[in-house]
Design brief:
The complex is a heterodimer. Chain A is mainly alpha-helical. Chain A contains four helices and no strands. Chain A has a domain of 47 residues. In chain A, helix 2 crosses helix 4. Chain B has one domain: Up-down Bundle (Butyryl-CoA Dehydrogenase, subunit A, domain 3), CATH 1.20.140. Classes of the chains: A mainly alpha, B mainly alpha.
Chain lengths: 138, 202
């Protein structure tokens, strides 16, 4: 086979017969398309970034809020418990103290003890109640 | 109303005259057209209509498959459109367009090679594509020649195609590929030798 035969029909290649029919139009359409998506892609990217940042921020705020609430709850629980215990302790301590202490001999000694109790936050009623049960020696 | 039948032929005549005027335009005239925003698209359309076939065959012989050639053609003309302002009227339009098409074809082949992870010689892949290509209906001898050409490195294949199929002058090839004429002659000589050796085996 000679060279001209080998070069015939573009060396054996061909293409769809209508390939070049609307080629200019197709290229112009592609170019316009190419110009547009660039802008919209940027907008889409910016929107996604905004949405992402918003979600992340709201999640963080939510987490902080939940964590803060849990802390305050436990603090509150702790302090409530503490006060209850403290109050309970005080009450039992007072009763125990009053029932088991040696008999006070003078009025001054009573007065001094009452001062200590009042200072510790025991109310007058509680003191009177406790005293009603105690035998006071004169 | 009487002369309605004359309108269509008259319009056809006007279009023919316009096309004739466009066909006669030189590189500098095209350059003037594409530099002006109002006439940029007209100039570009002229370039597409005038050079689409020649660029298609250059690209097709490099990438082998018609679908790939279509993609590279689109990319080439998009690049041309995007860089129209950079075209200087003093340079040959044909050289400038060819250079863009060559770069796009080589970039496409390099991308494909990377996707193959270099496991196989990409020439073998193209050779397989040639076998299955519905838009290749050459004789056995033409198929053998194409397979022989596909054994060449891309640059050598490009030189061989330009010289053998398009009968391009070394001077023009040197401008397009930015290489010396001597180097291109040597390249073509080596390519011919390899193709002959390959064909002798079968």
């Amino acid at each position: 086979m000679n060279n001209s035969e080998l070069k015939e029909n573009s060396g054996g290649f061909n293409m769809p017969p209508i390939f070049f029919d609307h080629f200019e139009e197709d290229i112009m359409h592609k170019i316009r398309e190419e110009d547009q998506p660039k802008k919209s892609k940027k907008v889409i990217r910016a929107t996604w970034i905004t949405i992402g940042v918003s979600i992340a921020a709201s999640l963080l705020i939510g987490l902080f809020f939940i964590a803060g609430q849990e802390n305050s709850n436990s603090l509150q629980e702790f302090s409530e418990l503490d006060w209850d215990q403290y109050a309970g302790f005080e009450e039992s301590w007072i009763l125990q103290e009053l029932s088991e202490t040696e008999v006070l001999e003078t009025e001054d000694e009573y007065a001094m003890d009452i001062d200590v109790l009042m200072y510790a936050g025991v109310t007058n009623d509680e003191i009177f109640e406790a005293f009603e049960e105690l035998p006071i020696e004169e | 109303m009487k002369f309605d039948f004359l309108i269509k032929p008259f319009c056809k005549l006007v279009i023919k005259v316009q096309n004739k005027n466009l066909q006669d335009k030189s590189s500098s005239e095209i350059s003037k057209l594409i530099q002006e925003p109002q006439t940029k698209e007209v100039g570009f359309r002229y370039i597409v209509s005038q050079y689409k076939e020649r660029l298609y065959w250059l690209i097709r012989r490099m990438v082998i498959h018609h679908v790939d050639a279509e993609d590279v053609m689109q990319n080439t003309f998009i690049k041309i459109w995007q860089n129209l302002e950079k075209f200087r009227g003093d340079a040959d339009l044909y050289t400038w367009l060819y250079r863009i098409a060559v770069n796009e074809s080589l970039a496409f082949l390099n991308k494909k090679k990377k996707q193959q992870f270099n496991l196989n010689d990409y020439g073998d892949v193209l050779s397989e594509q040639l076998e299955s290509d519905s838009f290749f209906d050459g004789s056995e001898a033409q198929k053998l020649l194409q397979k022989a050409i596909l054994t060449l490195p891309d640059q050598q294949r490009l030189v061989f195609n330009m010289r053998y199929f398009e009968e391009m002058k070394y001077q023009d090839m040197a401008r397009i590929l930015d290489r010396s004429e001597g180097a291109l002659k040597a390249n073509y000589h080596h390519a011919v030798k390899k193709v002959e050796d390959f064909c002798k085996q079968y």
